[in-house]
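REVIEWER CHECKLIST
Item 1: Sequence provided? yes
Item 2: Single chain? yes
Item 3: Sequence as submitted:
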Amino acid sequence: MANRKRSEVRLGRLVDCAGSDVAIASGTSPCEESMSVADPFVTCLLEDAMNVPAPDGSTVRPLGRLTGLGSFAHFQLEPGEVSEAVSHATVQEIWYVIGGSGEMWRRQAGREDVVSLRSGVCLTIPLGCVFQFRAAEGADPLQVVAVTMPPWPVESVDEARIESGKWSPELKRS
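Item 4: Structure as written out by the authors:
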């Protein structure tokens, strides 16, 4: 599979396992194909998932979703990059760091903190929390898997709101 040529990412729509319309990046990814109505079980390899830009500037690979319950994705921020600060309008998340290192800043209801990120760290992002993260300088990108509850909305135009953060965003890609 390592030699499989990735398809070009195009904005598209997909019907998930429960028959709901889902806005995603489109192509011929086996992950996308497995989320069709014809196959009620989603099985996806990270290497086959489509790369799409997250509103905060990180790269996200949607991996699975259960309608009405939650969605699961892999996020990556390259070494030295700093995301945009965002808050979510309707979803909350649980993050688990699987690689790299960095920091996460969170602010909500007069409280704010900065936590170190490294493999094994799990953290929550409650509804309405403003957050921003950055990857440490070095060879390894910061990699996180996350559950979003409820699932990331189909019409996500207003879901992630750009906010003022602790650090200046720095994204090396265009």
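Item 5: Key structural point noted by reviewer: Confidence is low (pLDDT under 50) at residues 1-28.
Item 6: Recommendation: ____
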